[in-house]
């Protein structure tokens, strides 16, 4: 998923959320090496410093560990931690955030429909 410019979250948090979800869903598994900073920057169309900030967030959360010269790897217990963080267990803050995104999307769609109806009535 590309970085969205209409998302109120900074790009590094969007990327951290993407990677956290990939870990929670098992797309990135324990012991697996994350793509390089350069590869992530190219994939998401962001600066390498932005990628480094996102990885720092995940490292601070205990989801990944960096080894100098070898890369950044998913921690052994990261999937359970990430699942809780993104709300896959229904209790984490991610479930609330996902629900808010859904509500915002629905409101935006309703606003568009209302605008169309108002234009017809003019």
Word description of this protein:
By secondary structure, this protein is mainly α. It has a domain at 11-91: Winged helix-like DNA-binding domain superfamily/Winged helix DNA-binding domain (Arc Repressor Mutant, subunit A), CATH 1.10.10.10. It contains 5 helices and 2 strands, in the order H-H-H-E-E-H-H. Strand 1 (64-67) and strand 2 (71-74) form a beta hairpin. Helix 1 crosses helix 3 and helix 1 crosses helix 4. The model has no long low-confidence stretch (mean pLDDT 84).
Structure, briefly:
The protein has 122 residues and is mainly alpha-helical.
Describe how the helices and strands are arranged:
Layout: H1 11-24, H2 37-44, H3 48-60, E1 64-67, E2 71-74, H4 78-86, H5 93-121
Antiparallel strand pairs: 1-2
Helix pairs in contact: 1-3, 1-4, 2-3
Quick tags:
5 helices, mainly alpha, Arc Repressor Mutant, subunit A, two-stranded antiparallel sheet
CATH architecture of the domain at 11-91: Orthogonal Bundle
Reading the helices and strands in chain order gives: HHHEEHH
For the biggest sheet, the summary is: 2 strands, antiparallel
Q: Overall pLDDT, averaged? A: 84
Percent of residues in beta strands:
5-15%
Anisotropy-based shape: elongated
The total count of helices amounts to: 5
CATH topology of the domain at 11-91: Arc Repressor Mutant, subunit A
């Amino acid at each position: 998923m590309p970085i969205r410019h209409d998302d109120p979250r900074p790009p590094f948090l969007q990327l951290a959320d993407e990677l956290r979800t990939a870990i929670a869903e098992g797309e990135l598994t324990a012991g697996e090496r994350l793509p390089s900073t350069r590869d992530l920057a190219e994939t998401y169309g962001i600066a390498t410093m932005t990628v480094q900030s996102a990885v720092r967030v995940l490292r601070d959360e205990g989801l990944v560990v960096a080894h100098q010269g070898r890369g950044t790897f998913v921690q052994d217990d990261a999937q359970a931690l990430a699942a809780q963080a993104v709300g896959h267990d229904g209790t984490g803050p991610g479930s609330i955030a996902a629900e808010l995104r859904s509500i915002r999307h629905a409101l935006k769609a309703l606003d568009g429909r209302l605008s169309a109806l108002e234009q017809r009535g003019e």
